[in-house]
Design a protein that fits this description.
This protein has 455 residues and is an alpha+beta fold. It has eleven helices and five strands, in the order αααααααααβαββαββ. It has a five-stranded mixed sheet. Strand 1, helix 10 and strand 2 form a beta-alpha-beta unit. The N and C termini lie far apart (78 Å).
Length: 455
C-alpha cells in the first residue's frame, strides 16, 4: 500500500508541518551544533513517517488522527532537541505551526470543492488510490502551491513576525496553551471523522461548510495564542517598568537629600574660599577661579519651577560637563505639576541619559543637548534633541522605539520603554524622529488634567 493516498500524504504532511513550525521557531535560541541537531531531528521525523504502517486497517478517522498526532509529537521532541527553550515555548511554536498547516490544508481543499476540481472527496491523504495514481494533477498542484505559500506567508506576517529574537518568549498562561492544543486535536479528529463518513456519499456543499469551520478554528487558535503571548510580554515589560519607577523614586529621594546638602556645603565653601583669598594674597587666582566654577555648578542650581526637574537636570548637568556636552534648558517646570516627582525624575532621567549616550559618540563640536518644556494651551510639550550617529538611532524597532546600541539587548532598552509607558498612562503622544542633519528628536505631548491628581 505504499502507493496509497495516505502512504504518500504522510510524507507530505511531515514536510508541511516542519515548514510551518520553522515560520515560528527560527527566532528561538538554539543549542550548540544547531545545524547538526536540525538535520538529525528532521531525519528522525521522516523516518517515523516512513515506518508508520499503512494498510487496509489505516483508513478510518482514529488511525489517521493517531498518525498525524504521532508525527506532531516527534516534531515537538525534535524542536526540544534543537532549541534552548522551555517546553512550553517549544510547544507554543509547534502548535502555531500545526494550526497554520491545518489552516492551509483546509484552504486548499476548500478551493478544490468551490471550483469543483477533483473527483469524489478531494481531501488529499484519505483516499485509497492505487499505486498508479498521484495525489495531484497539474491544476491541483498549482492550487496547492499557491494556497500553502499564501497562507504560510500570511501566518508569518500576522503572527510569527511578533516573536522577537531579542526578547525571551514568556507564555503567561500555559494552561490556555494546552487547552488550545486539545481544541486543535478535537478539530482534527472531527474533521477526519466527517471526511471518512462522507466519502461514499460525497456532498460538495457539505464539505465546503466543514472546511470553512475548520479554517475558522485554526484562525481562532492562532489569534488566541498570540493575544496571550502579547499580553504576557506586555505584563512583563510593565512589571519591569513599575520596578524601575519604584527604584528611581527611591533614587530621587536620595538624590534630593544629597543635592540639598551639597548645595549648602558648596555655598558655604564658596564664601570661605573668597574670604581666604582676601586674607591670603598668595592663592593662585586661576586655580581659585577653577574651583569656584566647579562649585558653582552645584551652588547655582536650576530654577525651572519644578524641584524634581531641577534635581534631575542638575545631576545630568554634572555628567554633561564631564563629557564635554553643552546642555541647554528652557523649561517651564510648573507645567509639569500634574506629574509625580518620581515620574518627572524617571522621564527626564531616562531621556537625558539616552541623549548623553548618543552625544558622546559624535565629534565634540556636536555634543549638544537641548531641552524645551513649555505649555501649549491644554498640553505640555517636551522636546529633547541631540546629535547622533547615522546608524545609532535611525533604525526603529517594530514598536516604534529605537533599538538599543548596547550589546546586552535583553537587559537594555527599558529607558525608552518606560518613557513610552509613562506617556501612555497620561494619554499623551510620543514621537521620535531623526533629521537629515543627524539630529535625533524626542517629542512628548501630554494633556494637562483639569484637576491635578492628589498625592
Amino acid at each position: 500500500m505504499l502507493g496509497s493516498g495516505l502512504a504518500q500524504y504522510k510524507f507530505i504532511f511531515t514536510a508541511e508541518l516542519l515548514v510551518a513550525i520553522v515560520l515560528f521557531s527560527f527566532k528561538l535560541h538554539k543549542r550548540k551544533h544547531a545545524v547538526l541537531r536540525t538535520l538529525l531531528a528532521v531525519g528522525i521525523t521522516f523516518l517515523v513517517a516512513f515506518i508508520f504502517p499503512i494498510g487496509d486497517f489505516s483508513y478510518n478517522f482514529w488511525y489517521t488522527s493517531i498518525l498525524f498526532f504521532s508525527l506532531f509529537a516527534v516534531a515537538v521532541g525534535g524542536c526540544c532537541f534543537i532549541f534552548d527553550e522551555s517546553f512550553v515555548n517549544v510547544l507554543f511554536v509547534c502548535l502555531a505551526g500545526y494550526a497554520t498547516q491545518h489552516l492551509a490544508y483546509e484552504c486548499y481543499n476548500l478551493l478544490l470543492n468551490v471550483f469543483g476540481i477533483g473527483s469524489f472527496n478531494s481531501l488529499i491523504g484519505y483516499g485509497q488510490s492505487n499505486t498508479n495514481q498521484t495525489l495531484f494533477t497539474p491544476v491541483t498542484l498549482i492550487i496547492y502551491v499557491f494556497s500553502y505559500l499564501d497562507l504560510y506567508w500570511l501566518s508569518y506576517f500576522l503572527f510569527g513576525f511578533r516573536i522577537d529574537k531579542r526578547e525571551t518568549m514568556r507564555i503567561k498562561y500555559p494552561s490556555i496553551l494546552f487547552a488550545l492544543l486539545l481544541v486543535l486535536a478535537i478539530d482534527v479528529v472531527f474533521n477526519a471523522a466527517v471526511t471518512f463518513y462522507s466519502y461514499d456519499d460525497f456532498d460538495r456543499f457539505y464539505m465546503i461548510f466543514n472546511e470553512l469551520y475548520n479554517m475558522l478554528c485554526s484562525i481562532g487558535i492562532l489569534l488566541i495564542m498570540f493575544a496571550f503571548l502579547t499580553e504576557g510580554q506586555l505584563k512583563e515589560e510593565i512589571g519591569v517598568y513599575q520596578h524601575l519607577l519604584s527604584k528611581q523614586a527611591k533614587q530621587y529621594e536620595m538624590r534630593k537629600a544629597d543635592i540639598e546638602l551639597l548645595n549648602i556645603k558648596c555655598h558655604d565653601l564658596k564664601h570661605q574660599i573668597h574670604a581666604l583669598a582676601a586674607e591670603h594674597k598668595s592663592i593662585d587666582e586661576r586655580e581659585l577661579k577653577q574651583i569656584s566654577e566647579v562649585i558653582s555648578v552645584y551652588d547655582a542650581g536650576l530654577t525651572t519651577g519644578s524641584e524634581a526637574l531641577n534635581i534631575v537636570l542638575m545631576e545630568k548637568q554634572a555628567r554633561c560637563k564631564k563629557e564635554g556636552i553643552r546642555l541647554s534648558v528652557i523649561a517651564d517646570g510648573a507645567a509639569l505639576s500634574f506629574l509625580k516627582d518620581n515620574e518627572i525624575y524617571s522621564l527626564f532621567g531616562n531621556a537625558v541619559d539616552n541623549a548623553i549616550e548618543a552625544s558622546i559618540q559624535v565629534e565634540e563640536e556636536k555634543r549638544f543637548i537641548s531641552i524645551v518644556v513649555e505649555r501649549k494651551k491644554a498640553f505640555v510639550s517636551i522636546v529633547i534633541q541631540n546629535y547622533c550617529l547615522p546608524d545609532s538611532t535611525e533604525t526603529f524597532s517594530r514598536n516604534r522605539l529605537p533599538k538599543t546600541t548596547k550589546k546586552d539587548k535583553e537587559n537594555h532598552g527599558f529607558g525608552l520603554k518606560s518613557i513610552e509607558y509613562l506617556v501612555q498612562s497620561y494619554d499623551g503622544d510620543l514621537q521620535m524622529k531623526r533629521t537629515e542633519e543627524g539630529i535625533f528628536s524626542l517629542d512628548i505631548l501630554l494633556p494637562i488634567p483639569a484637576v491635578p491628581p492628589q498625592g
